[in-house]
Amino acid sequence: MTCPKARPASPPALLFEDVDDTVARLEKAGVEIKERQRLAINAEVLHKMAFLRDPDGI
């Protein structure tokens, strides 16, 4: 049985060369920025990260 309101354990991730530029372009296009870009905790794996709201509001 599936639950229609179930959320994934972790959000999907996308990789971009320039996170700052990508976030700026997405914001200009009307995408809601949930958490602005910042340095990642595990810098060996990621340099910067940001969180965005998806079209369904999640």
Provide a concise account of the structure shown.
This protein is of the alpha+beta class and 58 residues long. The protein contains one helix and two strands. A two-stranded antiparallel ribbon has the order 1-2.
Features:
single chain, alpha+beta, two-stranded antiparallel ribbon, 1 helix, 21% strand
Number of strands: 2
Q: Looking across the biggest beta sheet, what order are the strands in?
A: 1-2
Average predicted local confidence, pLDDT: 81
Question: Residue share in helices?
Answer: 10-25%
Indicate the radius of gyration in whole angstroms. 13 Å
What's the order of the H and E elements?
HEE
Distance between the termini: 22 Å
Largest beta-sheet characterization: 2 strands, antiparallel
| Secondary structure tally, helices | 1
Given the C-alpha coordinates, what overall shape results? flat
Percent of residues in beta strands?
Answer: 15-25%
- Judged by helices, strands and strand pairing, the structural class is alpha+beta
Instruction: List segments where confidence is low: pLDDT < 50 over at least 5 consecutive residues.
Output: none
Structural write-up:
With 58 residues, the protein is α+β, with helices and mostly antiparallel strands. 17% of the residues lie in helices and 21% in strands. It contains 1 helix and 2 strands. The chain has one helix at 19-28, and strands at residues 33-39, 48-52. The protein has a two-stranded antiparallel ribbon with strand order 1-2. Strand 1 and strand 2 (48-52) form a beta hairpin.
